[in-house]
Amino acid sequence: MTLDRLTPLDDEGVLRVVLETPQGSRHKLKYEPKDRTFKIGSTLPAGMTMPFDFGFFPGTKAADGDPLDVLVMMDGPAYPGVVVNVRLLGVIEGEQSDDGEQPYRNDRLIAVAEGSTERGDLRRLSDLDDSLVTQIETFFETYAKLTGKSFRAIGRRGDRVARRLLDEATTPA
Predict the structure, then answer these.
(1) Which fold is adopted by the domain 3-169?
(2) Considering the chain, what is the average pLDDT of its residues?
């Protein structure tokens, strides 16, 4: 099965994510379903790297027209195209605008990899240190600003809201 035919739930009902950009990378990768390849979408500015693995829930379409974004906390970076079983922790709700255009929602779901030995005890966004969540928000704000966009965190919500956003973004099979 190809990545563009996956759904956010496997046959056993476990959430799964397709990783695009590994933790520590300066290159923000993007899966191109038409070509079934990963391409460099952009390069993060000097001194910036992806704080955790970044990917998407397959079979979803978010308010920005792309698959639903998710930041995955794991014990170390993985590789583009790897499918990871995850548990939702919550969501950083955000608004983004491109070059002064009308703002649109661009939420960042936060999840932890199932079986993580270092972070396996995390169950909700509030389990994370507040300063870490602030750093994640600041990363997305700074990255957007340096690429000619604007991102503003407008709220933090738990796993139930994150799951509702996932359910709403899931496209029919």
Answers:
(1) Inorganic Pyrophosphatase (3.90.80)
(2) 92
